[in-house]
């Protein structure tokens, strides 16, 4: 019986999915006496029929269906027990998910499809139509959000199901959906492979062939092969025209027309493109009553883009407004802002509407619309699960952010109104380390909620399992050359990747459960973005903040002083400047000191040119505290060593470095800086140092580590762990208990993703293994190579170990940008602790240590070059740190002498008393 139910409901769902459920409602009369029938089934304890009656009623009464369906959980009198009841409950959950989607609530729809999937797997149900009813719409929801990684996970589950059931039609359709996901990620090789696999599994006369060839044309188009794309879609349309479209097949033709329109638009054939989009809309009206809304929204937006390309901005704006109406957004100003939800269609249409306003010269309207586009993007990004997916999405929205900043800058120049300066800072902050900010806030919020709730333990278990798998993958990749290409190794990697996908899905679902159970977690994430006024008010009044935004065309420099924006500069030719800085860092720092030593004048001039380009107009005063927030390639640059004056001198020790004018620290963003100042730190004044020389390992021996440990031990009192005593467990224990944690070891970037890695005595620790701790040090000193370096994530910053420690709770770090000189690092870090004991903040302690190097006597002039002294940078919240000084050798010697004298006197005194007592007794 349940198969018939599934089939009939599946047909109704297909009708509803086509958007004609309102037409059905006009021809089918609502149930009469519904409550009476429901009560009858309840009295008979017939839960199956009670559920199906509710589902059937929702189909025939779509206007009431969502509220009616969503009340089911409250009105049910017991949980499903028998198989038929569980099948009915599964159908109910999937219907709730679909109805939520139909009303535009994609995020809740995803949640209910997840509930459906979990219920299906937990109860081991074996029902027909599961792929069509749950898997496909669920994956499509993730596609709508732009979370193609999650979409692929579900699509792979669907494919596995299809192959198991030998459902070749479903397998072909699933391969098509996977191809779309891969194409959206820019992975055209895998996208083409999926299309080919789908074509191989087609049954004779399958309409899915049309869909696959539509997708193939899109792949060719996106990959730049316009000629082949046009040929493929033309043949596909001609093949469809030989058949009479019906309710189901018309959709394929609609999709083909849209793809053909996109290709024509790329070629500049505007009239042809316009005709194709109109044909798509005609099919939507004729066969689907105009209710395939997402397709309608896309085609309408593209018609607006055609007009935009023809400089017909007024006509373009009318089309864009039609799109907003189709998507359910009406009204103006605050009303529209409150209606915005996370969807790629909204991101695109608001951006295009902004460009249309810009074309007419209405910069204010252009800025407002692009800000709305960024708001829709922010709503999507917040809901994405995987960190790398968030980072990819952040990078994709940076172009829009640059456009908005450019418009705001023009308006600021034109009007002089301070509000536009605030807008620029606001958009800059949106493009800075948002994933890190969420990690800091969410980790801290979850840690404050940790009780005996087993959900938190389960979450930690999943995180550890994921980290273990990722570590295995990383270490396999870092093995012998070509080893990972062996069939056995390749199979192991595929298994690990597959397991990790399952674990990440389970973790995402568990995090949603935790957010539902503890709303403050969601609140912490959503409220992470302070108002601009709030940001400015929390910046230390005496500090000057210099924030950079590096775009494709321009670089923007924004300066805050005395909690007010004082200066904004636009630097053109961003591409050439980025290349100049990248070459400068590589030649003079990453490749070693040779180029700097061999031609110091060339280095001097190159350094001064970068200073002139980035900072010359700011007028930095002597002894000023400056916080620099970098972006993209600037994150590889240490500003201390920049040359501030043009006139060259052969006396390197006298060079005018920026460090001689100002004390510089760094932050990932203003928001992360504020949040780092609020995280829970370890109590007390404990120092812990882990020093690994690698003397008895296969890694390169570092003799300077022992020297560094010896130097610091003479200055600071604390726990000093050497080699065998400095393993991963020791590191975690020290992190949890020390107020200042010092780590001196090898550090390097592993694998294709340049994963930051620390080498401890017993094993390596990768950045992704670091998870939030209840307490954290106020300062972590990473006296190792490249600990502030890593892969550059556009819109996020450098993914470094310094960043990783910030995410798990460290308030600040001192880390290295390049391979540090061992002797210089040992001397400078020792001086840092000496300066901390003298009452300096962490940042000033490093500043004075560098200045001490420059003011001291060195072995030669070349040692005054910044390669030697400028590798370490301070990142994060600056504050005074209290440590216990080490006892001096003289004091220890005197204490030893005193103790020995006391013991000698005590022995003499006791013996004397005994002798006197014996003499007394003998008398």
Automatic annotation (TrEMBL):
Every CHAT domain range: 608-876
Key words of the record: Membrane, Signal, Transmembrane, Transmembrane helix
Region: Disordered, residue numbers: 475-495
Annotated signal sequence range: 1-23
InterPro entries: CHAT_dom, TPR-like_helical_dom_sf, TPR_rpt
Domain of life: Bacteria
Pfam families according to UniProt: CHAT (PF12770), TPR_12 (PF13424)
Residue ranges of the TM segments: 890-911
Protein name: CHAT domain-containing protein
């Amino acid at each position: 019986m349940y198969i018939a139910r599934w089939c009939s409901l599946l047909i109704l769902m297909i009708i509803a999915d086509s958007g004609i459920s309102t037409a059905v409602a006009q021809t089918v009369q609502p149930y009469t006496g519904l409550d009476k029938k429901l009560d009858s089934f309840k009295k008979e304890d017939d839960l199956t029929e009670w559920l199906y009656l509710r589902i059937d009623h929702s189909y025939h009464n779509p206007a009431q269906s969502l509220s009616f369906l969503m009340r089911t959980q409250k009105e049910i009198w017991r949980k499903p027990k028998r198989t038929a009841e569980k099948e009915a409950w599964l159908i109910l959950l999937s219907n709730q998910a679909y109805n939520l989607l139909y009303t535009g609530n994609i995020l809740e729809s995803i949640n209910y499809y997840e509930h459906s999937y979990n219920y299906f797997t937990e109860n081991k149900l074996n029902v027909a139509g599961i792929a069509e009813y749950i898997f496909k719409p669920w994956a499509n929801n993730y596609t709508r959000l732009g979370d193609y990684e999650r979409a692929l996970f579900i699509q792979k589950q669907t494919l596995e199901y299809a192959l198991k059931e030998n459902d070749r039609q479903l397998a072909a359709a699933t391969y098509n959906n996977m191809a779309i996901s891969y194409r959206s990620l820019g992975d055209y090789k895998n996208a083409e492979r999926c299309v080919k696999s789908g074509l191989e599994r087609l049954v004779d006369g399958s309409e899915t062939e049309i869909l696959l060839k539509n997708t193939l044309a899109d792949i060719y188009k996106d990959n730049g092969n316009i000629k082949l794309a046009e040929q493929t879609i033309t043949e596909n349309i001609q093949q469809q025209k030989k058949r009479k479209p019906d309710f189901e097949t018309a959709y394929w033709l609609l999709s083909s027309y849209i793809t053909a329109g996109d290709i024509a638009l790329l070629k500049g054939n505007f009239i042809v493109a316009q005709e194709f989009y109109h044909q798509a809309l005609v099919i939507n009206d004729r066969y689907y009553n105009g209710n395939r809304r997402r397709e309608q929204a896309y085609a309408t937006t593209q018609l607006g883009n055609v007009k935009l390309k023809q400089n017909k901005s007024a006509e373009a704006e009318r089309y864009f407004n039609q799109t907003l109406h189709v998507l359910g957004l009406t009204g103006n100003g605050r009303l529209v802002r409150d209606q915005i939800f996370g969807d790629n269609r909204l991101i695109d249409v608001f951006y295009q509407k902004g460009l249309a306003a810009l074309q007419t010269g209405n910069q204010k309207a252009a800025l407002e619309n692009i800000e709305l586009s960024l708001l829709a993007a922010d709503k999507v990004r917040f809901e994405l699960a995987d960190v790398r997916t968030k980072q990819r999405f952040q990078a994709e929205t940076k172009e829009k952010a640059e456009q908005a900043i450019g418009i705001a800058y023009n308006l600021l120049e034109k009007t002089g109104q301070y509000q536009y300066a605030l807008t620029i800072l606001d958009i800059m902050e949106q493009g800075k380390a948002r994933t890190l900010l969420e990690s800091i806030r969410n980790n801290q919020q979850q840690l404050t909620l940790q009780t005996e709730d087993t959900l938190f333990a389960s979450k930690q278990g999943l995180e550890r399992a994921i980290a273990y798998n990722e570590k295995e993958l990383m270490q396999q990749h870092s093995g012998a050359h070509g080893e990972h290409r062996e069939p056995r190794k390749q199979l192991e990697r595929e298994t690990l990747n597959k397991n990790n996908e399952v674990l990440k899905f389970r973790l995402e679902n568990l995090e949603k459960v935790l957010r539902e159970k503890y709303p403050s977690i969601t609140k912490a994430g959503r409220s992470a973005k302070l108002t601009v006024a709030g940001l400015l008010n929390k910046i230390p009044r005496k500090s000057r903040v210099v924030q950079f935004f590096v775009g494709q065309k321009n670089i923007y420099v924004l300066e805050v002083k005395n909690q007010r924006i004082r200066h904004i500069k636009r630097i053109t030719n961003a591409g050439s400047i980025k290349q100049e800085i990248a070459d400068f860092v590589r030649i003079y720092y990453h490749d070693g000191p040779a180029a700097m030593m061999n031609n110091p004048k060339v280095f001097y001039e190159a350094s001064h040119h970068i200073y002139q380009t980035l900072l010359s107009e700011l007028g930095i005063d002597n002894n000023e505290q400056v916080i620099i927030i970098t972006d993209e390639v600037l994150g590889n640059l240490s500003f201390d060593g920049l040359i501030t004056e043009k006139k060259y001198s052969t006396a390197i020790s006298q060079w005018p470095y920026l460090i001689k004018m100002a004390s510089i620290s760094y932050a990932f963003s203003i928001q992360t800086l504020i949040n780092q100042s609020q995280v829970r730190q370890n109590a007390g004044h404990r120092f812990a140092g882990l020093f690994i020389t690698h003397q008895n390992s296969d890694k390169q021996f570092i003799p300077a580590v022992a020297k560094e440990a010896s130097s610091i031990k003479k200055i600071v009192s604390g726990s000093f762990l050497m080699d065998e005593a400095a393993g991963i467990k020791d590191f975690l224990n020290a992190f949890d208990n020390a107020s200042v944690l010092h780590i001196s070891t090898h550090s390097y970037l592993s694998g294709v993703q340049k994963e930051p890695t620390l080498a401890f005595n017993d094993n390596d620790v990768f950045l992704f293994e670091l998870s939030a701790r209840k307490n954290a040090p106020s300062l972590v000193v990473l006296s190792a190579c490249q600990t502030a370096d890593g892969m550059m994530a556009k819109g996020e910053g450098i993914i470094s170990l310094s960043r990783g420690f910030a995410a798990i709770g460290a308030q600040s770090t001192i880390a290295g940008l390049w391979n540090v000189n061992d002797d210089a690092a040992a001397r400078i870090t020792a001086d840092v602790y000496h300066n901390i004991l003298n009452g300096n903040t962490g940042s000033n302690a490093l500043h004075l240590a560098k200045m001490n190097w420059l003011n001291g006597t060195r072995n030669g002039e070349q040692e005054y070059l910044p390669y030697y002294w400028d590798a370490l940078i301070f990142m994060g919240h600056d504050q005074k740190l209290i440590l216990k000084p080490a006892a001096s050798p003289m004091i220890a010697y005197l204490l030893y002498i005193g103790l020995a004298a006391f013991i000698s006197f005590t022995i003499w005194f006791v013996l004397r008393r005994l002798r006197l007592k014996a003499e007394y007794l003998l008398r």
